[in-house]
Backbone:
C-alpha cells in the first residue's frame, strides 16, 4: 500500500502537469519589480516585509479554492497532513518545486523547506537589504490559505537561500482552530 | 596579467579588474590603466558601426599592448588590455562568457543599470573565466 505522503507527492506532480505554465523569468522579473517598487515606496525593510506578507495573504485566501478544486483534496485529518499537503502538493503545483516538511518544537509547529524558489532567480540581496525577507509573499500565501480552512497560523521566513542558507525555510505555528460559522449561528 | 574594463552609457566605468593572463613584461602602472582604456573608446565607437559583430577584435594599442573590445546589444562595452600573445579566439570566448555573466547581473532586480557592478559572484566568475581562457 502506498503511504499517504507518497500519494500526496504523486498528486502534486500530476496536478502540476495539468497547470497552465508561465515563463519563470517573467515571473521572477515581475516579482523583483514588485519588491523593489515596495522598497522605493516604503523605504523601510520591516514595512516591506509586512506588505509582502499582506499581499501573500490576499493571494492565499483566493488560492486555496484553486488548490481544493484542482486537487480534489478534502479535509486533512491532522496538522501533519496539512503540512504535507502544503509541501508536497501546494508547492509543487504552484511553484513547480519539491518541498520537505520537518517537524517543529511541538505538535503545533512545522517547517516547510525548499530549494530552487523561482521567485529568487537572478536575485542578489545588497548588504543594505540583508534584513529583507524577499520571499515573504509565500509566508502570507500559506497564512491566507490556511485561514480559509479555519486555521489561524503565524508564519516566518526563517532561512533563505538569498541570505546564504543552503535551503529556504518557512516556519508555521498553529495558533488556533476556528469553529465553522454557519448562517444564523449568532441569532 | 590582463586588464578588463566595462564601460556603460556616457562612458561610465562600471567594472574593472586585473585578471590572470600571460604577462607581457611591461605592465602599465595602475593609475594609467583606466586612462588607456578611456583613450580607446573613440576608436571603439567608430568600429562598433563598421560591422554587425559584437566582438570588435583589436580597437587600439598602447605601447604595443593591444586593446580588444566587445560591445553588447545594449551598448555596454567590454575592453581588454592584454599581451599580443593572447589568441583572438580565447579573447572572443572570454568576452562571450563575460556577456553571459553580465546578463545575470543585469537581471538582478536590485541592480541599477549603468552603476558599478559590486557582485562578488560576478567578480569571482570573471576571474575564473580569465584563468580558464588565458592561462592554458
Residues:
Amino acid at each position: 500500500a502506498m503511504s499517504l505522503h507518497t500519494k500526496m507527492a504523486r498528486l502534486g506532480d500530476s496536478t502540476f502537469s495539468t497547470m497552465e505554465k508561465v515563463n519563470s523569468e517573467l515571473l521572477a522579473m515581475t516579482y523583483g519589480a514588485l519588491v523593489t517598487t515596495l522598497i522605493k515606496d516604503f523605504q523601510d525593510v520591516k514595512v516591506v516585509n509586512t506588505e509582502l506578507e499582506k499581499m501573500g495573504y490576499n493571494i492565499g485566501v483566493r488560492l486555496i479554492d484553486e488548490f481544493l478544486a484542482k486537487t480534489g483534496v478534502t479535509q486533512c485529518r491532522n496538522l501533519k497532513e496539512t503540512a504535507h499537503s502544503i509541501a508536497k502538493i501546494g508547492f509543487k503545483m504552484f511553484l513547480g518545486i519539491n518541498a520537505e516538511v520537518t517537524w517543529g518544537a511541538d505538535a503545533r509547529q512545522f517547517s516547510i523547506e525548499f530549494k530552487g524558489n523561482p521567485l529568487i532567480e537572478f536575485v542578489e540581496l545588497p548588504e543594505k537589504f540583508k534584513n529583507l525577507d524577499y520571499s515573504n509573499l509565500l509566508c502570507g500565501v500559506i497564512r491566507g490559505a490556511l485561514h480559509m480552512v479555519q486555521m489561524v497560523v503565524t508564519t516566518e521566513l526563517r532561512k533563505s537561500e538569498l541570505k546564504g542558507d543552503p535551503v529556504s525555510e518557512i516556519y508555521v505555528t498553529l495558533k488556533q482552530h476556528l469553529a465553522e460559522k454557519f448562517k444564523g449561528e449568532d441569532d | 596579467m590582463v586588464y578588463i574594463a566595462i564601460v556603460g552609457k556616457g562612458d561610465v566605468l562600471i567594472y574593472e579588474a586585473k585578471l590572470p593572463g600571460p604577462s607581457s613584461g611591461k605592465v602599465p602602472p595602475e593609475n594609467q590603466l583606466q586612462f588607456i582604456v578611456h583613450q580607446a573608446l573613440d576608436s571603439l565607437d567608430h568600429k562598433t558601426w563598421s560591422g554587425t559583430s559584437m566582438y570588435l577584435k583589436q580597437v587600439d594599442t598602447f605601447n604595443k599592448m593591444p586593446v580588444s573590445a566587445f560591445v553588447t546589444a545594449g551598448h555596454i562595452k567590454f575592453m581588454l588590455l592584454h599581451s599580443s600573445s593572447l589568441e583572438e579566439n580565447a579573447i572572443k570566448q572570454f568576452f562571450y562568457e563575460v556577456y553571459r555573466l553580465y546578463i545575470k547581473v543585469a537581471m538582478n532586480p536590485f541592480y541599477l543599470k549603468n552603476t558599478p557592478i559590486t557582485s562578488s559572484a560576478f567578480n569571482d566568475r570573471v576571474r575564473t573565466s580569465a584563468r580558464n581562457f588565458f592561462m592554458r
